[in-house]
Amino acid sequence: MTSHNKHFNNKQAAAVLKHALLENYLMPFATMTSSHSQGHRVWYIDAYAGPGTYEHKAGESKGAPGSPLIALGISRKLSKFARPLNLRCLFIEKNIKFAKSLEAIVRAGNFPGEPSVLRGSAESRLPEAIQCVGNDPLLTFLDPFGTSLPRALMISTLMQR
User: Fold this and answer.
1) Neighbours of 96 (CB within 10 A)
2) In contact, 69 and 26? CB cutoff 8 Å
3) Complete DSSP assignment for 118-144
4) How many CB atoms lie within 10 A of CB 9?
5) CA 10 to chain centre
6) Over its length of 161 residues, how does the chain's per-residue pLDDT go in tens digits?
7) Do the Cβ atoms of 27 and 124 come closer than 8 Å?
């Protein structure tokens, strides 16, 4: 698999597009599907979460938000609706340094919905993550660097739920 250690130094053009899609799709998805679950709960799984933010540039106090922080921000907004929605965020990250960074962000942010970080590869942790979701609506963000998930795992884990 291709290393993605340098990917989080600067936001790449593809990241700008995927984050715009996430920012514009996750909230409508959650609001439209939450009525199909007990407790108005919807799940978001980011299978290649990264450290949560991009490295900050000179003159900036913090780096640009990555997909985890975008999702957590949407979770916070949804929790403040007149009829609060429970967007549960589950992040999977293989790189220990990135996972620790993301865990620190999750702990310090006081985010709603008990977000959690699973350390390990998407291939090894995705079945466990899917089991947590049960029958609730789910948006799975699969944005790998290099080789994607094996087809058999995609079919057995994601498509059969």
Assistant:
1) 10
2) no
3) EES-HHHHHHHHHHHHTTS-EEEE---
4) 11
5) 19
6) 444 454 555 556 677 788 899 999 999 999 999 988 888 899 999 999 999 988 755 555 567 899 999 999 999 999 999 888 999 999 999 999 999 999 999 999 999 999 999 999 999 999 999 999 999 999 998 875 555 778 888 788 777 76
7) no
Tokens of 38: 């007990």
110-143 core/surface letters (b: 16 or more CB in 10 A; e: else) = ebbbebebbbebbbebbeebbeebeebbbbbbeb
Distance of CA 158 to the CA centre of its chain: 16
Number of other residues whose CB lies within 10 A of the CB of residue 55: 14
Model-level pTM? 0.84
Distance CA 49, CA 88 (A): 15
Six-digit token string for 75: 């979770």
Do 42 and 86 touch, CB atoms closer than 8 A? Answer: yes
Taking each helix axis as running N to C, give the angle between helix 67-79 and helix 96-109, from 0 to 180 degrees, rounded to the nearest 10. 20
User: Which H or E run includes 42?
Assistant: strand 41-46
